[in-house]
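Build the 3D complex.
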Amino acid sequence: MKNIYKLLTSLSVFMLLLVITSCNSDNEVEPLFDQSINERTDALKSEYSNILTAPENGWVGYYSPNESFGFYTVLFDFDENGSVALKSDYDSGSADNSVTYRIDKSLKIELVFESSSVFSQIFSLNNNDNGGEFVFNILSATDNEVVLESKLDYGSDITVFTLRRARADELDLAPVYASVNNISGDGTESVFRNILFNDEAIGSFSFNPTTRYATVTYLTDGEFEIVSVPIIITATGFSFVDPLDINGVILTSFEYNDTENQFENPADALKIVYDDIPGLPLTPYDFGNEAGNIRILRTNDGFLSVDRSSSNFINLFEGWRSDFEASIGLPITRFYIRDIGSDVAYLDIWIPVTGGTARAYFDCTVDVTQDASGNNIVKFTFIEDSPGNQDFGLASFFAPMTDFIFRESGFYVQKMELLNAAGQNTLGLIPVDDPSMLVHWYDF
Amino acid sequence: MVLKLIQDNNDLKKFNMKNIVKLIILMLSVTCFYQCQSDDTNAQFVAPENPDISSANDQYLYDNDGKSLFETYGTATRWRWNDNFIDPDERATPIEADFVIPSTKIVEYLWAGPYASTGIDADAFIKDLFPAELVYMGSYIFNEDGTVKLGFAEGGARVTLLNMNDLDFQNREWLTDPSGGILATVHHEFSHIVHQNHDIPVGFNTISESYLGNGWSNGVSRDDAIKLGMVRNYGTLNEYEDFCEIISHLLVVDKDTFEEDFINQEDCTTYTDAGEIVNCRELNEGRQLISQKVDLVVDFYKNNFNVDLLAVRDSLQTRLDKVIEMNGIPE
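Done.
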């Protein structure tokens, strides 16, 4: 019995010592760091703050919210009172402002832009589903470079955004706004924008100012290659984020030539120019044999397909409709070319009137030829004495569009995107004598 | 192992089991009650002695000659972005800094003000229940199921207001649209605080035969909701959303429209089509249910808090017209 008591007593003393020892804060364990985690965090935040506020001209970075977007130039001028002035070339600087920022700590040290800024505006696109960010983890910061990582991205497309010290000559973004406009074009130029190598067309070029993606089309072994890639726009031109290879010709960067309204890279013998003729064969559309009727897309709402008519044509067409309604008091709602495959085709123009629709008819012949590159060219010729014509004595009011259609030069024909999931065609007609006037139709 | 030791002992018959049990309990007690002591200051929250209110926004919110939300209601207003205020899988944007003070004026003039203006008890009611925390965000939260979160109340203490970057004093739809207007949202969310603290009126949840649960967003139209005795499809979710929707509609929708849409019985004899007649009668039956709920809610506020909700509605409507006319909040 005594042995049992002794055993239990000893065990009690041992456990008590064990507990007390485990709680002794004066143990001799050597700490890994000289400072507590809070002290180290504060020191790091202070260090980052000093780095961010140090440069006289602030910082500059090229920002893309996700892999489907090109890049925007963003300038930062952090002050020691927790404000940062943000300037960017997003929407020509419309989102520029000063906001408060915070260097904070969650899982990592983070940089938070606390109120609405250019970052949250880009973030808000597509109902906040644009892969954007306005909270960044600070991956590293030195006197000359700050590397930020999105805190709001999930999955594999995580934005990494690198800032460097801005130069004085980079602080004015107006030249970059102008560059964006130069690359986008104003809609009055030719729709044929060719990439020339040693003055020979090797591809065509287009640009989407919203996504800042450039689309380059070229031929390889007779097959069309269409490549969409992000670009960085600078004060003097633009550069591809990654060099683009067109059958061995490498595209890197271009400078804008204001006199010629073209982009150039003289060292590489490259140009991007507006031209009166297509540099590459147009996507073929077998006019007259694909479908019997076509209708101008923009007179019908509700299609998934976006109206791709050029600004110049839209101005002509809408101006004509507006003038017609102002003069006659009736609108024009539909514009067709029908019976294309038969001997006599006709323009069919719809004018709603009380109790129904008045339809103007202009009979014509349809001739399809080919240019030297094999592009189809269609010409509509008005049959003046055809008994089927019906203009209600208003020929002069229809003239802007009848003259446009019955032009001597005819139209290039280009197949365009499908209208809908059923695979219905759309096509472009581009006047040979005025390639700024692309008209977008669908067939049926 | 211990059991084996005891069994082998020759003195087992003499062993006093009670003493052993006492000793073991004593050992465990000493072990359990001994507390590790720490002087680590991180263990306690220490409020900052001098919070930074240097910005104009924070001065208006916290130190405004006794008139700020903090000084009046003890409300902390969060306008600087903080991830912690939404779920990790939700997406919203920060508010425009320039919209913080105008947004707060809306809160003061068109949320708290209509209550405070209708009597001492109503003033005490709003002071008592006004949320301890307001959060402003710039955009809506778009849910994966296609629905849109307009605002939310949490724990009877925090209300988060969304879509503040569309602030426009002259946009009646932004202000009052029952399916997304800011006033509909604040009065809806405040009603959540009311029932989270005082529950809903007895019998409210049995006036309508049933609620649709998560099926509320599955093609339920406003007419469908009215036929069930609710003023909006979201009210068909459950009795709590029904309660909040009725109050927000009662206060925010102008009186004539509210009565026309939700209370007055339509003359179904004007219809000749059988389907239209049935539809008219079903709507009228639903309006009777809504009317019962409105009466119950108005009585609930009057009897429990001495708050006249109809007077609050009248005050709000008068103030709303002024705001739209002036394109701003009267001083």
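The first strand of chain B starts at residue 76 and ends at 78.
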